[in-house]
Design goal:
alpha+beta, Immunoglobulin-like, single chain, 2 domains, 22 strands
Length: 329
């Protein structure tokens, strides 16, 4: 029997109408991507002058994945950069590094938690902060910011050698870590990905080693230097918020008070307990000082996801904690 073509066509139309009535609609395939337009000034304002920015490096990330990394020279209208063909998401970040006429990187602009919507363009306006670039013996490059009258690194240390070239022990085994009496480092959960983002964790034997783990001209801050920084930022009860990276890209909710006003950009790298297990990534940031208390303890500073404060705590020298560096006076 031949099929009734007219009847089949009518049934098909009824099926389509039924689908439409249920809220199913044809997706918008014309503009499945979104875009970001970045605006940045072509000068870096200083205390007494304005330094011209001639070239910038623009890095765009979606989460932890880099989706754009290019250099741009200044145009007639300064720096206006459009990044197209971006998948919709709410976790984009933009980092600009500005160079002066001597090709020195002197400025940084940053915005995170940018939401990109399909078919739409989002406008991002960045301002500059003055930075310094410093490298360690392994060739790792760090950014530093001036807070008060001192230069502080904006990133945690991730060096594997002392200044003289001797290796720092890399210990992954928990029982071996517990027995250490010499300098050592590790990465949280022994993960290279964690090390790349949060830096390395060091015991205090490495921090206090006379061979030095910091770049030349820099050192691990003393307990007194930490306190001077905290006092400059308004005291221990609020300084943590001014030091923590804003948003929830790395910190757990609610990341209380975090606005990174200082530029310190603290990340919650967690720590390694002296018995060798790992704790609190995403929740706490611990930083060694160079000041010991006893044969087994040294001073440490901690920032927490649910507080604006900076706490001063004593920690076992065998434990693994992050290291920030301050420039020699």
């Amino acid at each position: 029997m031949r099929p009734n073509v007219g009847l089949l066509a009518s049934l098909f139309m009824v099926f389509i109408v039924a689908l439409t009535g249920c809220g199913v609609s044809e997706p918008d395939v014309k503009n499945p991507k979104g875009s970001i337009t970045i605006h940045a000034p072509d000068t870096l304002s200083l205390e007494k002058a304005a330094e011209s920015i001639h070239r910038i490096q623009c890095i765009v990330q979606k989460g932890t994945n880099t989706v754009h990394d290019r250099e741009y020279v200044k145009g007639d209208s300064g720096f206006i950069i459009e990044i197209e063909d971006l998948d919709p998401s709410d976790d984009y970040s933009v980092l600009l590094l500005g160079q002066n006429s001597e090709s020195e990187t002197v400025a940084r602009g940053y915005e995170q938690d940018i939401e990109v919507t399909a078919g739409k363009n989002v406008q991002v306006y960045l301002s500059w902060i003055r930075i310094m670039i410093v490298a360690d013996i392994d060739g790792n490059v760090y950014q530093a910011v001036k807070i008060g009258n001192r230069w502080w690194m904006m990133e945690n240390l991730k060096v594997t050698r002392y200044r003289n070239g001797d290796p720092i022990e890399h210990i992954t085994d928990a029982p071996a870590w517990d027995r250490l009496t010499v300098g050592a480092f590790c990465m949280y959960d022994n993960s290279a990905d964690n090390g790349a983002v949060y830096g390395f964790l060091y015991n205090w034997y490495a921090v206090n080693d006379s061979r030095g783990i910091t770049p030349e001209g820099w050192h691990v801050p003393t307990d007194e230097e930490w306190q001077t920084l905290i006092d400059h930022l308004g005291g221990a009860s609020i300084a943590g918020g001014k030091m923590k990276e804003a948003g929830l890209s790395h910190w757990e909710n609610p990341n209380t008070g975090a606005d990174n006003e200082s530029g310190f950009l603290a990340l919650p790298g967690g720590y390694r307990y002296y018995e060798g297990d790992f704790h609190e990534k995403g929740y706490q940031a611990y930083f060694w000082s160079g000041t010991g208390i006893s044969l087994s303890l040294a001073w440490n500073r901690v920032l927490r996801y649910n507080s604006s404060a900076v706490d001063r705590v004593d920690r076992n020298r065998i434990g693994g904690f992050s290291v920030r560096c301050v420039r020699d006076e």
